[in-house]
Amino acid sequence: MADTGGGDNLTILKLGGSVITDKDTPETVDDDALAAAVAAIAESPAIDDESDEANLIIVHGGGSFGHVHASDHGVSTTEGTHDPAAVTAIHGAMKRLNSVVVDRLQAAGVAAVPVHPLSAVARDGEAAVSLPTAAVGSLRAEGFVPVLHGDVIAHAGQGVTVISGDELVTGLADRLGAARVGLCSTVPGVLDGEGDVIESITDFESVAAALGDSESTDVSGGMAGKVEELLALARPARIFGPDAVGAFLAGDAPGTLIDGGSRD
Amino acid sequence: MADTGGGDNLTILKLGGSVITDKDTPETVDDDALAAAVAAIAESPAIDDESDEANLIIVHGGGSFGHVHASDHGVSTTEGTHDPAAVTAIHGAMKRLNSVVVDRLQAAGVAAVPVHPLSAVARDGEAAVSLPTAAVGSLRAEGFVPVLHGDVIAHAGQGVTVISGDELVTGLADRLGAARVGLCSTVPGVLDGEGDVIESITDFESVAAALGDSESTDVSGGMAGKVEELLALARPARIFGPDAVGAFLAGDAPGTLIDGGSRD
């Protein structure tokens, strides 16, 4: 039951910050969870194939690295700062986490290389994202697997604000024409009021009540936001749990399908 | 005797890798030299002015950080690698140097923030550079001083190759319309056969003999290359020594003027 989309063979995989870090301890990697995700990626057809071009881009969240510093400095996706020390505190923490992820992927045989959004991405005064893909696209064409992360980026009139990993995923998927988009969360999918995985979501209204009610959806850092972000994407995406990374990369259809249906 | 160019009030300052590092000891900062450059920058009118926009972009070279690793892995501006471990070795060393430079500038009151070229810049198959300026331009508009560095970048058909700080300087100057461009080298300017500073250079042929002959010009890592790069720039630039950073930023005209005269 493989699902495919438009574009080429590109898969964009997001590893949630709460999946790969211990969210309760500042700047602590969840070694077992990261090792499991790395193993699933290293064994996947996206890495194994014989094309010269890499068919995978990885984005990870902040977890106990970026979020702690962002919170300390009062910075969010809408609240900015002009303090350069806040920029380097948040960005530096995310680069430390990114370095761990990239190193572990390389050690497992994945040609991972770091890409830091602050160096390339910006928001204008209407919060629209400018996301040049020269580096990501060219690295991928040369066989490297770009590994991006939630970060702070310049934001007109605000200094810098946070860009989430989810927003990078949809921005890259739109611009690069990803065939498959998957978000690995701490939960096995978007859960309904009874805690069961919703099979597919095509509009927000039908699930708003469940997303608002369920405590269990909040541990991943805002499931409602993820669903809204993915519904706006002009291609289908999936939200699934840590155990399903391998299945997703193999072409299976775990977790919840999010498909807003807009194709422009 | 101030020299001005077109564009707005933007100054681009390059700090040579051999100026701010001890080139003979791997990954060693020249603390005194960096402190002097940082002090000159912090006191300069480019930082002191009252505009909300930062009027300065800083680029630094690799010195004993990037060059050692690039050499170990056989990577240069023309010789590439597809080895992800080589990418992170070279890029990681440059990020360590960049972090020191940014931290010292911040400690001196400069709103410095890091910008890593690997995340944004790429070369095509004809080695033409794609250098998106969304992040650099937006950071600057918000009052931050972007601090870039020589790096490895994706290069079509080659994996990654080195982009020098000098090439970033001219690329940014062209795209952002810098009013003033200055390269701080270890020597007080481009030296003639007698070791005297040449006042101005408008074509390469007139100085080729001196640049080829003089041992003293080689310590900065290829003065001939710098001169050629700056002659191709559609605006005047200066090469000067470590003692002249403050004078240059104050609007004076130290060292050697390089002006190829092309204005397109």
Helices and strands, with pairings:
The structure is a homodimer of 264-residue chains.
Chain A: E1 11-15, H1 17-20, H2 31-42, H3 45-48, E2 56-60, H4 63-72, H5 84-107, E3 112-114, E4 122-123, E5 129-130, H6 134-141, E6 145-149, E7 151-155, E8 159-163, H7 165-176, E9 180-184, E10 200-201, H8 205-213, H9 223-231, E11 237-240, H10 245-249, E12 256-258
Parallel strand pairs in A: 1-2, 1-9, 2-6, 3-6, 4-7, 9-11, 10-12
Antiparallel strand pairs in A: 4-5, 7-8, 11-12
Helix pairs in contact in A: 4-5
Helix content of chain A: 25-40%
Strand content of chain A: 15-25%
CATH second-level architecture of chain A: 3-Layer(aba) Sandwich
Q: How many distinct domains of chain A?
A: 1
- Average pLDDT reading of chain A: 91
Assembly type: homodimer
Say what the CATH topology of chain A is. Carbamate kinase
> Radius of gyration of chain A, rounded?
17 Å
Number of helices of chain A: 10
Spans of chain A of 5+ residues with little confidence (pLDDT < 50)? Answer: 1-7, 213-221
Give the SSE order of chain A as H and E letters: EHHHEHHEEEHEEEHEEHHEHE
Give a description of the structure.
Chains A, B: Pfam families: AA_kinase. Chains A, B: This is Isopentenyl phosphate kinase. Chains A, B: It comes from Halonotius aquaticus. The structure is a homodimer of 264-residue chains. Chain A contains 10 helices and 12 strands. The relative contact order of chain A is 0.18. The longest helix of chain A is centred in the middle third of the chain and has 24 residues. Chain A is globular and about 45 Å long. With 264 residues, chain A is of the alpha/beta class. In chain A, strand 4 and strand 5 form a beta hairpin. In chain A, the strands form 2 sheets. An 8-stranded mixed beta sheet of chain A has the order 3-6-2-1-9-11-12-10, with helices on both faces. Chain A has one domain: Acetylglutamate kinase-like (Carbamate kinase). Helix content of chain A is 37%, strand content 17%. At the A-B interface, helix 5, strand 3, strand 4, helix 6 and strand 7 of A face helix 5, strand 3, strand 4, helix 6 and strand 7 of B.
